[in-house]
Amino acid sequence: MTAPVLVACAHGTRSAEGRATVRALAADVRALRPGLRVVEAFVDVQEPAVGDAVRDVLAARVPGATGTGAVVTPLLLSTGYHVRHDIGAAVAGLPATAAEPLGPDERLVAVLLQRLAEAGARPGDAVVVAAAGSSDPEAARAVRVVTDAVREAWQGPVTVGFGASATPGVTDAVAAARAAGAQRVVVAAYLLAPGHFHSALAAAGADVVTAPLGPHPLLAQVALDRYDEQVARSAGPGAATA
User: Fold this and answer.
1) pLDDT for 27-59, tens place per residue?
2) How far apart are CA 190 and CA 168, in angstroms?
3) Which of 10, 18, 207, 215 could form a disulfide with 75 if both were Cys (CB 3.0 to 4.6 A apart)?
4) Helix, strand, coil proportions of the chain in percent (round to 5)?
5) How many other β-carbons are positioned within 10 Å of the β-carbon of residue 1?
6) Angle (nearest 5°) at CA 100 between 98 and 103
7) Dihedral Cα 167, 44, 93, 83, nearest 10 deg
C-alpha cells in the first residue's frame, strides 16, 4: 500500500530566507522518511495554494484507488484561521485529511530554549515569548502552553506577547517586563521562519531577539509525528491507504 502524500503546508512569505527555511524543513522530512512523497503548499503569498496542491496530488492517484490520498500537515505552530478555514476547505469532501499543527510540543520548547542560548540570553533575563498571534482562543492557549513550559525551564521571568490579533502585543510585553524591573529583555521568537513577523520584532524594544525556530531537525520529527497520527486516525478497521 502506498502511503498518503504528505502535503507540507506553510504560511508563505516574501522573505527569501523564510522560503529557504520551509524548503529545508520539507527536505528534512524527506530525509527522515525516504520514499514518502512530500510536496509543499501554502495558505498565503506563495504558490501552490494548498487547495491546488491537494487537487494535483489526488489527480495523480491510480484510478479506483481508495483511502486517504493526501494528509495536509500544517507547518504552522498553532491552530487558527489558516488551519481551520484554508486547510479545512482544501480537504473538505475529498479523499484527503488534515493533521494537527506542530504545536504545542515539548520539542518546540527545546528548540526555543536552544535559540535563547544561541542569542546570548543569560539567567535572570526577562524573556518574552513572541508568537504571530491569532483571534482563535485555542491558538492563544497553545502559545501559553509553550510559554508555561519555557517558564519552568528558564531562570528568570517569562511572559508572552503577540504580533497581531491577540494581546498583549510584543512591544507592550517588553515594556511591561522593563517596568517590572528587568535589566535585560530577550524576545524569544516563537516563529517557524524569517519573514514579516520576525522582522517586526526588532522594533519591539528588546535587548536581544532570537532567531526563529527553523531550520532545525526536530521540526521535521514533529511534522512526521503529526502526519503519522493523522494516518492512524484515518485508518479504520479494514481500511487501506492508497
Assistant:
1) 999 999 999 999 999 999 999 999 999 999 999
2) 15
3) 10
4) 45, 15, 40
5) 9
6) 150
7) -20
